[in-house]
Amino acid sequence: MTSSPLSSTMLRAAGLLGLFVVVSVSILVAVNNFTQPKIVEVERQVMLNTLNQVMPTQYYNNNLIEDITWITAPEALGTHRPMPIYRARVDGEPAGLVIETIAPDGYSGNIHILVGVFADGRIAGVRVLSHRETPGLGDKIELRKDNWILSFDGRELTAANAGSWALRRDRGDFEQFTGATITPRAVVNAVKNTLAYVNQEGARLYE
């Protein structure tokens, strides 16, 4: 039995379509294999640059982004999810920690924060990673909007000064924002809780 011209045409079309799909998939796989390592490297560099804002490179000589541990401490870090701690060292000795933490009580939800702490308990730096606070009010927690976040630099938490870790309207040392007190209060409390955790756990966090 011979095939009709229509059947032959359909078979050829199906074959060409199949070939096109195979070639297209092969190209996509090749492009992905070529670009994926570059994307990963860019993401890694962006993260390292962020880490270096709260733990400058002159204070460590290890591979900070690779020296990492994960902890679950919901009371201290504001979430039940494991959070990363990056360990800074000088010739193998503890130099500082960079901890991701969350302020769960922001005006518009979670505020993700990066806290750098020297081995002696002083703050090396604090930066906000992400938030949904009100533009023009709560977003002053961003360094590009205001220098307020720099007011944490060099501070430490002790039994004697614990009361100063609050907004001025709450009889503490930190400025509030005009029209927005919930946001800075949430950040101050989150950083304070993180410092308290570091003080409590001490050297164990470097193990």
UniProtKB/TrEMBL annotation:
Q: Which UniProt keywords apply?
A: Cell inner membrane, Cell membrane, Electron transport, Flavoprotein, FMN, Membrane, Phosphoprotein, Translocase, Transmembrane, Transmembrane helix, Transport
Q: Name one GO biological process term.
A: electron transport chain
Location (main, coarse):
membrane
Q: Name one GO cellular component term.
A: plasma membrane
The record's EC number reads: 7.-.-.-
* Tagged with keyword Phosphoprotein: yes
HAMAP family reported in the protein's UniProt record:
RsxG_RnfG
Subunit and partners: The complex is composed of six subunits: RnfA, RnfB, RnfC, RnfD, RnfE and RnfG.
Per its UniProt record, what PANTHER family does this chain match? ION-TRANSLOCATING OXIDOREDUCTASE COMPLEX SUBUNIT G
Role: Part of a membrane-bound complex that couples electron transfer with translocation of ions across the membrane.
Which family is this sequence assigned to? Belongs to the RnfG family.
Report the protein name in the record.
Ion-translocating oxidoreductase complex subunit G
Q: Which organism is it from?
A: Thiomicrospira cyclica (strain DSM 14477 / JCM 11371 / ALM1)
